[in-house]
Specification:
alpha/beta; TIM Barrel; Sulfite Reductase Hemoprotein, domain 1; 2 domains; five-stranded mixed β-sheet; elongated
Length: 410
């Protein structure tokens, strides 16, 4: 049975983004980003809707050209017609001040702006162009994420800090100077945004690296020096298991310490693969830590010599896919169903025990065992299945369990 989280969150001010609240006592928010050409409003709206359907509570889109900025209001309109209210975040680099000025409809349609201090401008233009973007945020009542990234760190700030460091009797290592430059870039940019009129509770910070220990250290430092909500993410996490493992390693440490108010898993998708995988990984990290529940969890053994048949593996995959597909409807019908646990076990060693611990579980026969499959509900054996329709019968039992166990959603 799932247990409530005992973690204590780092206290931050709440920031409202459309109907979503980030920070304060609000649940940690999962977000994602499209990889379509924003200038193509149809494809971008479709992907935004797919990400929202998968559970992304905020969706970020690139706004890098006049055509992309002009497409944003249409994207918002298409999503509204689909009944998809997910807030859209505009990701700006280099020319955001020009695009917001040229297309005020874009400025109004977005729910939040993301500004990278390292990519706002150079020299005297940096402060001027940053101020312009903050002015638009104030004019249209939009919150801002100030997102520092070590791949695009403000080089002038870094150069100044290196000059000061070189004069020290015992200069710090380059990595130490870069770390402090990252934190200073985020905090000084936030202070400037407030000087330009953006309210304190309209600011979210991020400080991203692609190195796990560096990311953990940066966010620990940032959390100790401000009360802005923090957006967590290992930037450029990579592909496949590497991206998942590295992101999980970094974010789990911080979340366990109560640091982080919204997360994004920056996976590199396989060619032509669905973008929603990064949403599912983010949800599963939070659910594994007991911070939130999104979908019933399937408990399944890894298999061994006792389970030479792949039947239990196929059933586990089938049930997991089916449960996730039910959630958009179940979430509106059955309060708390997302906390349910379902066990699909492969032999008598741990099968009955794990099935008893789950809300509902099935213990399939291993090699050489009697070809029957006992089903347990809330610790008690209720029925024994056998024959070649076990999968369909168990799925029916799970659905019946949901219908009689979880009360109607409000």
């Amino acid at each position: 049975m799932s247990q409530p989280s005992l973690l204590v969150r780092h206290l931050t001010v709440p920031v409202r983004i459309g109907q979503v609240v980030v920070g304060g006592h609000a649940p940690i928010v999962v977000q994602s980003m499209t990889n379509t050409d924003t200038a193509d409003p149809i494809r971008t709206a479709i992907q935004c809707a797919e990400l929202a359907q998968a559970g992304s509570e905020l969706v970020r889109i690139t706004v890098n050209s006049l055509e992309a900025a002009q497409a944003v209001p249409e994207i918002r309109e298409r999503l509204d017609k689909l009944g998809c209210q997910v807030p859209l975040i505009g990701d700006f680099h280099f020319n955001g001040h020009k695009l917001l000025s040229a297309v005020p409809e874009c400025a109004a349609a977005l729910a939040k702006y993301r500004i990278n201090p390292g990519n706002v401008g150079r020299g005297k233009k940096r402060d001027e162009q940053f101020a312009q973007m903050i002015e638009f945020a104030c004019r249209y009542d939009k919150p801002v994420r100030i997102g520092v990234n070590w791949g695009s760190l403000d080089q002038e700030l870094l150069a100044r800090k290196l000059d000061v460091n070189s004069q020290l009797a015992q200069p710090l290592a380059l990595y130490e100077v870069m770390h402090e430059a990252l934190i200073e870039s985020a905090l000084t940019s936030a202070a400037k945004a407030e000087e330009y009129g953006l309210p304190h509770n309209y600011i979210i910070l991020s400080c991203k690296l692609s190195e796990v220990q560096g990311l953990i250290r940066a966010y620990r430092d940032l959390a100790s020096r401000c009360d802005y909500p923090l957006h967590l993410g290992l930037t450029e996490a990579g592909m496949g298991s590497k991206g998942i493992v590295y992101s999980t390693a970094a974010l789990s440490v911080l979340l366990q310490e109560g640091i982080g108010d919204t997360i994004r898993i920056s996976l590199t998708p396989e060619p032509h693969a669905k973008r929603e995988k990064e949403v599912i990984v983010g949800q599963e990290i939070l659910q594994a830590l007991g911070l939130r529940s999104f979908t019933p969890q399937v408990i399944a053994c890894p298999g061994c010599g006792r389970t030479s048949s792949d039947y239990f593996q196929r059933l586990a995959e089938q049930i997991q896919t089916w449960l996730r597909a039910q959630m958009p409807v179940w979430r509106t019908q059955y309060a708390g169903v997302e906390t349910m646990s379902v066990a699909v076990m492969g032999c008598v060693v741990n099968g009955p025990g794990e099935s008893k611990h789950a809300n509902i579980g099935i213990s399939l026969p291993g090699s050489g065992e009697v070809p029957v499959a006992p089903v347990y509900e809330d610790g008690e054996k209720t029925v024994t299945l056998k024959g070649d329709k076990i999968a369909a019968e168990f799925q029916t039992l799970v659905e019946a369990y949901v219908q009689r166990t979880y009360r109607p959603a409000a």
